Amino acid sequence: MNKGNLIVVSGFSGAGKGTVMNRLISEKEGYALSISATTRGMRPGETDGVSYFFKTREEFENMIKEDAFVEYACYVGNYYGTPKAFVEEKISEGKDVLLEIEIQGALKIKEKFPSAVLIFITTKDAKTLKDRLTGRGTETEDVIEKRLNRAAEEAKGVEAYDYIVVNDILEDCVETVDRIIKSEHNRTSEKISVIEDIRKELSKHTV
Fold it and tell me: Domain Guanylate kinase-like: where (predicted)?
């Protein structure tokens, strides 16, 4: 069985990265969504091991000491992190593991896991990004302005990503991301063992 890859998906708030990932999980084969661990309390309707892996602070900090996370951070008094064991298990099963994370965390993952594939989702222009944030109807003008300011900062680090995909028409974006991820399995580093086997067989026929 071929191993899967770790796929890190980032994007501007409002670009639709979460929607793209959900469509990949629900419509395409071979994907697994990374489940985070957290020290925050379980909310109504959440399930341990499905929504999050719920941990005590002591458990989480022990995992940090054991280098058991792909990445982790503390946000509003609670820890959040990606358990390495879960990711490695799914990759060994041949699944491409999707991890949605902001740009700084993504770059740290690339340092730790050079084979990780970084994909950045964007709108076609800034006006579309603002229109989508406004169209949600769930945030104040002040919050929208903060998200746009954050997007301006994030745009400075996008050169480190392997791929940039424009989410103009959702269906086209999902298909493009799916093709990119599938094509990663045909990299030389992924398929060199096939050539090595052929070389061995051909060497038997050389005079």
Answer: 4-182
**CA 141 – CA 157 distance, rounded (Å):** 26
**Structure letter (DSSP) for residue 97:** E
60 is in an annotated binding site: no
Consult the annotation and say whether 77 binds a ligand: no
Confirm whether residue 120 is marked as ligand binding: no
Whether residue 10 is annotated as binding a ligand: the answer is: no
Q: What is the CATH number of the domain that holds 71?
A: 3.40.50.300
Please name the residue that has the structure tokens 């991890």. Answer: 99
Q: Report the amino acid identity of residue 8.
A: V
For residue 49, say whether it is annotated as part of any ligand binding site. no
Total structural domains within the chain? 1
The range of the structural domain enclosing residue 61 comes to 6-204
Q: Is residue 1 part of a domain?
A: no
| DSSP string of 27-77, one letter each residue | HSSSEEE---EESSPPPTT--BTTTBEE--HHHHHHHHHTT-EEEEEEETT
What does pTM read for this prediction?
Answer: 0.82
* pLDDT tens, N- to C-terminus, the chain (207 residues): 578 999 999 998 889 998 999 999 999 999 999 999 999 999 899 899 988 999 999 999 999 999 999 999 887 789 999 999 999 999 999 999 999 888 888 888 998 889 999 999 999 999 999 998 888 777 788 888 888 888 888 788 899 999 999 999 999 999 999 999 999 988 776 677 778 888 888 888 765
- Residue 30 assigned to a binding site: no
Q: For residues 97 and 91, give the distance between their C-alpha atoms in angstroms, rounded to a whole number.
A: 7
